[in-house]
Design a protein that fits this description.
The structure is a homodimer. By secondary structure, the first copy, chain A, is of the alpha/beta class. Chain A folds into two domains: about 130 residues, 2-Layer Sandwich (ornithine cyclodeaminase, domain 1); about 180 residues, NAD(P)-binding Rossmann-like Domain (Rossmann fold), CATH 3.40.50.720. Helices cover about 35% and strands about 25% of the residues of chain A. Chain A has ten helices and 15 strands. An eight-stranded parallel β-sheet of chain A has the order 9-8-7-10-11-14-12-13, with helices on both faces. In chain A, helix 5 links the parallel strand 8 and strand 9. In chain A, helix 7 packs across helix 8.
Chain lengths: ~325, ~325
């Protein structure tokens, strides 16, 4: 019995999904349900292929109340730039939550991941950054450096952005892009200590294996969103910084303790136990679990969850289907 | 930079892939490479969704020397038959082994899985069944009951087939289908003990949680392929049967000890250790590890591997691409 399956390309998906308040709301709903304990989210499937410098991650989650669930396949092949291809690509497959039937194949080349990741950063800033942010800093100069600042600016309309990266040219280019996208004064800042000192909100977006943000730099009224570490072996935040935090929030404790900043802190002993740690969805449900004063120092640790994928994919497909966009295959 | 992605439907894939000697050879090559230790195959990702009586499995494997690797997503939603839908469906996504770029989406509704599963059974029969099989028996009456017998008949052209199932009507229908497909005399046999007694080759294809094939029924010159158990909690072969086996072969030891018949035998203590157990690919490479005489009793335990999926998907896509079949989407 053939059924209609919708095929959507990145260009088509971009018509319906972008880094905006809708995306932040969608992701907030996914985290809230995740915190409610009703989401089914198996551990990430991961395959390393050292011979070609490649890796493949698969994420999924079933969220009660959503029409579908997504399975996302994200390959990263890090020799690709040498032959003119992006390192990362991938797609999401959306299934009916009632019957498991394939509904849609979203050939997004990682675009939906970019959006849902930035939206989680926007949500973290909304719930945890001080009310008044004059200056935002970003460490790292890739696609997420741009998108995280764009998302944060939606919820904290700061006046200035500082960009730090190992490569001064890339930092300048990133600052120029951010200025063009947000209309905010954005400049490269070669000294990461100064960047943190001058910012009330800092987003770290690097794939670093060694801390790029030192404990000594923390100051009252700072919020940090650390979204670079999503694998064992990555670490952006000095483990000693955890002793200075007033509030630490994980997107998912079970992931952060093995893949996020929490892993390094547990290993270094600056966090003794995960008891008492809140997840981002709990802060959505009860914002008093986030920042309590403008003087507190807060950190949100983002590793990326299958719940976000299911939420953004379900939204994207519903919008495209309503608009009649996409190729339909009878399969 | 948009790239061509090929979308292939089940009807299109059926033009190029079927249960035949080519499929058995493809699967044999995958198992041989798997046994060589060069295949990268992460543990199966599994998500249970009890509220809708659903489950989703994801399998993958990277096989050196193959142009691509597949990620297979297999949902099973067991309330579906009540609304006229099949329980299982799913698809495979094929990626370039060099760049990780999406090459093709194979909307096969589980057809390629059916073929590669039957082909593994055919391979097991080829390597482990006695040379002369007059009668083959099959326990279970579903799609795999039909396909396993079809595959086994390619390598052991038996004259008679006995079919046992809990439902006499389904057993009769399955026997009629087998007779029509293979031209062999096939009849329903209500007594499973008699079915085993009269057969030299028995394939078990049930989702049973309790042994359907008893240890007392084993006799010299019997080969059993057990392919029904692919989850913790399933069990087709009486654990006591393991004490009577001359040869036991696993498709993958790490899977069989948690998902296959080996699990129940280890639990019952009729197998003390997995030391010394061979995998099917080792028997491909050295057939002397299989059956040594017509009097031996042998068992092959099949749980299904991502290596088979990658092998069949790579073959199917290459054939369809050469023929110019499929829908091309620029994504």
């Amino acid at each position: 019995m053939p059924r209609d399956i919708h095929i959507l390309t990145e260009a088509q998906l971009r018509q319906f999904v972008s880094v905006d308040e809708t995306a932040i709301d969608i992701v907030a709903k996914a985290f809230a349900t995740l915190a409610g304990g009703e989401v089914i989210m198996p551990p990430i499937m991961s395959m390393d292929i050292p011979s070609v410098h490649g890796e493949v991650d698969v994420k999924t989650a079933y969220i009660p109340g959503f029409d579908g669930f997504a399975v996302k396949i994200s390959p990263g092949f890090f020799n690709n730039p040498s032959i003119g291809l992006p390192s990362t690509n991938g797609l999401m497959v959306l299934f009916s939550a009632k019957t498991g039937v394939v509904e849609a194949v979203l050939l997004d080349n990682g675009y939906l991941t970019d959006v849902r990741t930035a939206a989680a950063g926007g949500l973290a800033a909304k719930l945890m950054a001080p009310q008044n942010v004059e200056t935002a800093g970003v460490m790292g100069t890739g696609a997420q450096a741009r998108l995280q600042i764009e998302a944060a600016h939606l919820v904290r309309p700061f006046k200035k952005v500082l960009v730090w990266g190992r490569d001064a040219g890339k930092a300048a280019a990133c600052a120029a892009d951010i200025a063009a996208r947000t209309g905010v004064d954005a400049v490269a800042e070669p000294d990461p200590a100064r960047l943190v000192a001058e910012s009330q909100l800092v987003v770290t977006t690097t794939p670093s294996a060694e801390a790029v943000l030192k404990a000594d730099w923390l100051h009252p009224g700072l919020h940090i969103t650390a979204m670079g570490s999503d694998q064992t072996g990555k670490n952006e935040i000095d483990p000693a910084a955890f002793t200075k935090l007033d509030v630490y929030v994980a997107d998912r404790i079970s992931q952060c303790e093995t893949l996020g900043e929490l892993r390094s802190a547990l290993q270094a002993g600056t966090v003794a136990t995960t008891d008492g740690i809140n997840e981002l969805g709990q802060v959505v449900l009860d914002p008093s679990l986030g920042r309590k004063s403008d003087r507190e120092i807060t950190l949100c640790d983002l590793t990326g969850t299958g719940a976000q994928d299911t939420a953004i994919a379900t939204f994207a497909f519903a919008a495209a289907k309503t608009a009649g966009t996409g190729t339909i295959v009878e399969a």
